[in-house]
Amino acid sequence: MITARAAASFEPVGRSVASARSFVRDTLQGWGFADIVDDAVVLTSELVTNAVVHAGTSADVLCLRSDEGVRIEVADRYPEREIPLQGAAINMGNPDREGGRGLQLCAALAGRWGVEYTPTHKTVWFRLDLPARTVGTRAAGPALPADLLPLADSRVRVAVVQVDRTGHISAWNDDAEELFGYPAEQVTGKPLTDLAAWPHTPGTSTGIAEALQLSRWEGSYGIRDAAGRVAPVYASHLRVRDTGGEPSTVCLLVRDHERAVLQTPLRVPASDTSSGSEGQSTDPFEVFIGSPAPDDLDGLLQRTVERARDMLDGDSAFLLLATDDETELEVRASTGLPSARQRFARVPVEAGTGRYGSARMPAVHDDLTAVSGAVPLLNGTGMRSVVTVPLKVEGRLTGSLGVAAEAPGRYSNEEALRLQFAADRIALAVESARLGELERLRRGSLSFLVEASDLLAGTLDRDQTLALMAQMTVPTLATWCAVYTIADQASEPYLSYVLHEDEELIDGIKSLLSKVPPPDPVPTPGARVWTAPAEVAHQAALRTSMRSLGLSGGPSHQITPGIGPTLATASAVGGETVVLPLVARNRVIGMLTLGKPTDEHFRQEILELAEDLSRRAALALDNARLYSERTAISQSLQRSLLPPELPTIEGVEVEVIYRAAGEGNEVGGDFYDVFPIRDGAYGFAIGDVCGTGPNAAAVTGLARHALRLLAREGLSGPTVLERLNSAILDEGARSRFLTLLYGEMRPQEDGSAELKVVCAGHPLPLRLRQDGTVEPAAEPQPLLGVIEDLELYEQTVTLDPGDVLLCVTDGVTERREGTRMLGDDGLADVLTTCTGLTAGAVAARIMRAVERFASDAPSDDMAILAMRVPGPHKD
């Protein structure tokens, strides 16, 4: 006879195996079947692994309780999957081999097991019988072969440590001295916390100081021994009092691998109402929940719904928690219901269709089919009768507890009173655990937002900002996300980035979202539900399934390769999807879309955290956009200050290397130009404006364009520079002084080149002859932009075949490393080694020498102009 049942469904993803193990463990412990929990968890783990990992389908797990034991069924949607045949003798073979291991374990561990088929499902079931207990014992285990007994040393040492009410050690036995190396006199009077290394026991949040105050505690931690090493121990604590009423805690400790000596099988008496020690009555809370009570909110809520279901012999139970304003209830725990679909779903409290009208007072519904929508949580579950009661703390609604059954008319006011009595016992504990969880979430949220702000502030690249937004939300806040951007108010939202925790699904989600009109760019803050992706996913999955069954014409095998990805994509986006606006500077610049897989919901705290993140991300994205726009404008303007391509001069090689100082600068205070003046004559210039950056670049543009205009008017070199000097002075406060080397070059018929140069305060040009000698090719004259009346003159230089003229700015000659400077002499020494090189090779060798002279990045603009007259060709 089946007395209770619990069911859950798990998606075809790897993490579902762990979820299934937790579901079975919690269910069986709630039923008081702790003796068979381990076997049931092992078998369930293997069978669910076969379904969700190897078969690639979802798994349905059903637990059925009876007086003799428990039956567990694991169903998948792959009936064609081969079942390994078991021979006459059971041979487990290699334990690392996965094929058929689940069925072999069923044969080895289960009392009975089998496989059942339908056209769409395959179900593997097993039954575990309760072990017979010896009368008068608290717990007993079967006789085991010697090789299966727990491993221990030849002599098991049990340290006995007594700790007074203040946490200080008052007693330390010989085994404790042997295990940890401290004599009793060395540790007596010291706090136990000085020796305990406390790595929180998984599933608890209790520290050593808190554990010492509990009436009973078991678990693992470490003790630092006399050598400074941490010795893992398993401990059993018992709180006692002496004849004078003084409390203390007796701690029994063994090595962790010998925990079987102390470890007590978890037994949870569901109806033990006997009085406790010292004649005091048992706490009604523990009567309902059992002892020890879970110290985490989810564990407490799950234990509550299981106890409530068992107490009223129901088929399912659920618990909802109220929001702070008591206007909505959020599903937090259920049993016997598809919990994955219901968890974190929210319903309004006030009366009306689809609302939870019975939340504020006890209510009994004999038949839900007669009152449609009275309990929205149970719609479509097959439950007919239900009793619900409120959880209240100091008159404030904090939640609602309900038990339902598949048969109508199962409950009366008597059951409602019993359930209300239980709800009153646990309401305060639930609210306390909820507030503790909220505090932890707030601390975690603050840490998350601080880290997110740092990451977003660390880049001004738009694409990197989009990637960071997505990577911070997946999987922390959502299973998948999509970022839409809006270029301007007249533009439509554009899908810019998609991310899923499973990278193989990203392309499918992109394809699906491209077929869905983007969400409306509404500036209203907060998350709003967007149903379009789930609807399109459902339709696509339906069409794919129909094609796979051959219902739309054509051979089904031609469609088969597309079935898997389509159905996987539909499942990935089939849950709740919300949209948060990205608002920066009072303008919607995009939307952040967060999604869950099929039938999952967001909890309110996650949505609030996502809203905070969206505000920070929007500002970061807008800053990146503005930076990109301004950088593009700056680069465009800077490029306009650079000369176009160098002209091809017959009989003369020309090469330029230019480096502007500062990040993002393409033009600084140094400039160069080579341009035709008239037939057979070319102008060249290299100059240096005082300073670097945009202000210097402004004068650079003035100088370069003025030189071209004046030179093409037929003016002589000195006249060109004198008029440029006047133009610079006319700039007033914006003017800057300028050093400039300007010349005109005319190739000659004999293969040489005649140059007329004016050196206005600029580093002198150097001439390299074929014999390797280097000499200045001009004399220094006053710089520009300082005085009004300049008297400049030009000098004539003839470059013979093979000669090189090198012109540089002071960023080259003033290159420093500590107190050393390259200088004019250093530059001349490098140039001496360039005999026979082309103009390009000369410029490159000079630049390499400058870069290698110092390890730091150059702090000044640099320009190198090399001109060479090729020597005669040799046949």
From TrEMBL:
Residues 160-190 form the PAS domain. Pfam families: GAF (PF01590), GAF_3 (PF13492), HATPase_c_2 (PF13581), PAS (PF00989), SpoIIE (PF07228). Keywords: Hydrolase. It comes from the Bacteria. PROSITE patterns: PAS. The keyword Hydrolase applies. NCBIfam families: sensory_box. This is SpoIIE family protein phosphatase.
